[in-house]
Structure formats: C-alpha cells, structure tokens
Amino acid sequence: MSPTRRGRALVAVLITLLVVGGVVGGVLYLGGRSGIGPLADEGTHSGTGAAPSPSLPAACPLSGKKPKGGHVPDRPALAVKVENVPAARPQTGLSWADIVYEEPVEAGITRFIAVYQCQDASRIEPVRSGRLTDPDILRQFGQPIFSYAGGVKQVYEKVAAAHLVDVNFNKPGALDHVYFRDSNRLAPHNLWTSTRGLYAFAHVHDGMPAPVFEYSKKRPHGQRISGIHLPFSSYSDVYWRWESSKKAWLRFHGTEPHLLSDGTQVSATNVVVQEVKVYMTNIHDVNGVPSPEVMATGTGKAYVLRNGRVIQGTWSRPKLGDVTVFKDRSGDEIKLAPGTTWVELLPNTIPVTLLQ
User: What pLDDT does residue 205 have?
Assistant: First the structure.
C-alpha cells in the first residue's frame, strides 16, 4: 500500500475502541524438545489485565487478527534472522511470528526474517547472521528491532543507515542476557533468544508499526489450486499445499513436511510470492561463495495465496521509504486474509509451478 493509503488504514483502526471486560486470558504454552520447555506464549508484553488504551487498534497491525491476549501491545516490530539449512531444522518459534520472509542467501540456501509484534516467543532458534537484503525489507516496518548473529561490516553499516534498532549478539552484554547456546545442538546452529528478552535489551517500549498489508475476510476471486512449488534449490525445495480442514497452507521441503521443534508443521494463512531481481555482491562466505542481494524496490510478478486460491498480479515499491504494494491484474490491491503471512522473495530466474 502507498504511504498515504497506509496512513488512512491506520487512522481507521485507531478510531476503533477495544473494550475488554475482566482479566486478560491465561498464557498459552506449547511443548518443545526435551529440555527446551515452553516454546512461546501469546499475550501482551506487559502481562497485565488492564483495559487497553483507546488509542490502540483493535487488530494486530501485522496480521489483521484480534489479539488473543486482550489488546495489541504498544511496541515496535521485532525481526529475528533464523537459519534454514537442513542442519538448522527443526526451528523453534516461527509459528508465533506475524510475518515471515524467506530470502535467498549463498549457494542456493535460504534464511528467514521472522517478524514479531503481537505475540511473544519464549524461544527462537537458531539465530544466524544478517545479510544486505534485511535492512531494505525491514524499513517497511518503521524502526523495528533487528536481532541477528552478526555479519560483515557492510551489513552493520546498512543496518545503521536504515535506523534499525540493532540488537545483534555482538552487542555488549547480549551474550550474557539475551542470547544463549543450546547444548542439544551443534554450533553454529544452536544460538537462541526470545522476544521478551530482546524487547527488554533494546529498551524500546513503544512505536507500533503501521500495517504493511490490507486485510479482508471476504473470499477473493482467484484460481483454485492445491498448492505451489518454489524450487529455490535442493536445500530449499519449497512446496506450500492447501489443507482445507485447517484452512491453512502447509509447508514442505520436497515431500517432507517442514516441522517445528514441537512437531507441528509450518503453516500460514497467506503465502505471498514476490518475484525479485537478485544480483551477486562482492561479499563472499567462508567457502568463497558470493553473497546475493535482493532488489527490494522496483516491480515484478506476484502470486498471493489465500483461502485455497491464488491471485496473480504484480508488486511494486518505487523507493525504500515505500511499502510494497501487491495488485491483481485489474489493478486493484490484493487484500490478505487476517492471519499469519509468509513472503517468499523468489529470484525471478526460478520458475513457479501452480499445483492443481
């Protein structure tokens, strides 16, 4: 959406008063691997049952859903960089993110940017290093907090230039208070953190992001499909398949379900495929492989999956200060279903296959 329309959307939700009677509901826990304990809890960052401020929206800005914890926390978006090589699976905490971006990195592998705001994850694992693509994507969320396991000099400089709140694990005190090593995993795939720890460490307690998508419960007109195939590489041979009984898209690597550490399968209410230009930088990993960077501005093809259907169209983002807008072939903005969204930053050289 454009900044002007996004502003109108935010004003519209801000004038909606959320009245909550009684005490906010209890905390929801999910079990994890042995020794991990609860994976995440839903609710506000304050942990109180106080009635919300009239200035807060009735729905979570990054999912369009009403918060189960009683009210939307007045805090910025928090982005965490999560690894996705086979040795990093199963991951922990992705299910509690409002939005997850999948981006290409070196040698055909991918990594995730998990964006949290309305829910808390008591464990997010494994956290890995940042890339040049990350600040360009995250500028859409205002001044979010960015958690990552370090990076090259150019990444640090770009994070600073984008005015992100940098809480990478090399910050003084971070490894003592907010990042920890999992003894059940081999390094470097064992660094974990939590949303509440990161918010406390960042010392940022307000600054709610504006929505980056429009939401509507109205079912869209689109082609009915059973799934989509996005072959990033043999490491990340991504399939999303519609499961009508769950009203969700389920994620697979080839024929293997993409499972989280509590045994549940990765799922999403919406899957947005954004075909992007990618170029190789002069930065190389430890194996000498060049690091790619996504062109986050411009235009390209897009596929929006919701409610068992796909709407084909385009995306556009003229400059980094804008939010990416997705429109159908008639030129109307595509609205998402309220819920979690995965955005696939797919190189435009990779074919997309719709499954019937």
Answer: 82
pLDDT on residue 248: 98
Q: What residues does each domain of the chain span?
A: 3-202, 223-355
Domains 3-202 and 223-355 alike in fold: yes
HEC sequence for 113-182:
EEEECCCECCCEECECCCCCHHHHHHHHHCCCEEECCCCCHHHHHHHHHCCCEECCCCCCCHHHHCCEEC
Q: Which amino acid is at 75?
A: R
Token representation of residue 318:
């003229």
Name the nearest CA neighbour of 228 among 272, 260, 264.
272
Q: Would you state the structure tokens that stand for residue 303, as one six-digit string?
A: 């596929």
**What confidence score (pLDDT) does residue 333 get?**
97
- pTM for the full predicted model: 0.86
CA distances 279 to 38, 69, 133, 237, 243, Å, are 40, 42, 11, 21, 35
Class of domain 223-355: alpha beta
CA distance 41 to 59: 18
In whole angstroms, give the CA distance from residue 202 to residue 208.
15
Q: In the prediction, which pLDDT does 31 show? A: 31
Give every residue of the chain whose pLDDT is below 70, as ranges. 1-54
Long-range contacts of 31-36 (CB under 8 A, 24+ apart): 31/262, 32/92, 32/123, 32/261, 32/262, 33/90, 33/92, 33/184, 33/261, 33/262, 34/184, 35/183, 35/184, 36/92, 36/123, 36/182, 36/261
Q: Are strands 248-253 and 227-231 parallel, antiparallel or unpaired?
A: unpaired
Token pair of 290 as six digits: 């060049």
Q: Which residues pair with 231 in a beta bridge?
A: 237
At the topology level of CATH, where does 3-202 sit? YerB-like fold (3.50.90)
In the block, which residue shows the tokens 């984008």?
A: 162
Of 203, 187, 92, nearest to 149 (Cα)?
187
